[in-house]
Amino acid sequence: MTSASAPGKIILFGEHAVVYGRPALAVPVIDVQANATVIENRLGTIRIETPGTGLNADLQALPPNHPLAAVTRAVLGALGIVHPPSFTMRIESTIPVASGLGSGAAVSVAAIRALASFLGCVMPDEKVNTLAFEIEKLHHGTPSGIDNTVVTYAKPVYFLKGCPVETFHPSVPFTIVIGDTGVSASTKESVREVRELWQADPARFEEMFDAVGEIVQKARKAIESGEMMDLGLLMDKNHSILQEMTVSSQLLDRLVDAARSAGALGAKLSGSGRGGNMIALVKPESAQTVAEALVAAGAKRTITTHVG
Ligand code: PMV
Predict the structure, then answer these.
(1) How many Å lie between the centroid of ligand 1 and the Cα of residue 272?
(2) What residues does each domain of the chain span?
């Protein structure tokens, strides 16, 4: 039997603009995890089980574009295995689905690693990342690749589409409270709608993407030099631009305002928006107060995570 796990993730800065070649910053959230276990069976078939969603099926019975069928075939293909042994792969995850916490990418990465090691191979991170990116395309259409990258490397990542992976290091640890709207939102949809708006008014959207790119550069410097007040202000600025891109929602705005009023240094939506999560940068001593304020303002759950 082999098993592997992968963390969730949040995008700190740069969502949406990252699809258009601007940089973004994302960090792993180790407080939530996807776990894959692979065990030999005597059924003569490959079985996929996800107890959380009630899936218990033969690989053959799943549609080819089912992410778990695709991930299984991708690993077998990458390893050149034509006649695999029969096995059962079970996926369990504590990462909320469709909420911007990278659940799809984490499931793929955990599955790739567990399966590769069951088949006797240690797959390098670069290969894991490439395969997970292929599966992300099934989930999200035209993903930038940021989710699979941060989940694979499980380190803070400065991400620029098409460039080698660059990790970065906070000079002092900082605390983020994540507030979940409980509203599932489709990344594919929101990315498509931004694309339509960009096509209708490229000049305005390019300007916003550039402004986000600048915020990302400043945010990286602030994180690397421990300037938390600056970092908070940059979050607020990034949120305003995301509002202008139309990807926020009333509930996300309410949670962002609630976090600021409860003492957060800054707050913004995180991920594709419309639903999903928002994040607030807090001093460790105000994490509890901010989390309570978020729940009072309508958050379905909060996660407090430490970066660095
Ligand atoms: O909703 P999430 O966390 O999967 O993030 C999507 C981030 C986008 O920039 C909107 C899309 C992408 O592929 O980078």
Answers:
(1) 5
(2) 2-166, 170-307
Other CB atoms closer than 10 Å to residue 294's CB: what's the count?
Answer: 28
Q: Model confidence over 6-22: pLDDT tens digits?
A: 999 999 999 999 999 99
Structure tokens at 295: 């729940």
CA 299 to chain centre: 19
Q: Which of 58, 125, 147, 180 is catalytic?
A: 147
CA nearest 190: which of 120, 274, 124? 274
151-to-7, 13, 282 alpha-carbon distances in Å: 6, 16, 23
Q: Are 157 and 13 in contact (CB under 8 A)?
A: no
Note the pLDDT tens digit of each residue in 71-111. Answer: 999 999 999 999 999 999 999 999 988 888 999 999 999 99
Atom of ligand 1 nearest to the CA of 247: 10
Q: Which CATH architecture has domain 2-166?
A: 2-Layer Sandwich (3.30)
The pLDDT of residue 140 is 81
Fold type of domain 170-307: Alpha-Beta Plaits (3.30.70)
Cβ burial, residue 30 (10 Å; 0-12/13-18/19+): middle
* Average pLDDT of the residues of the chain: 96
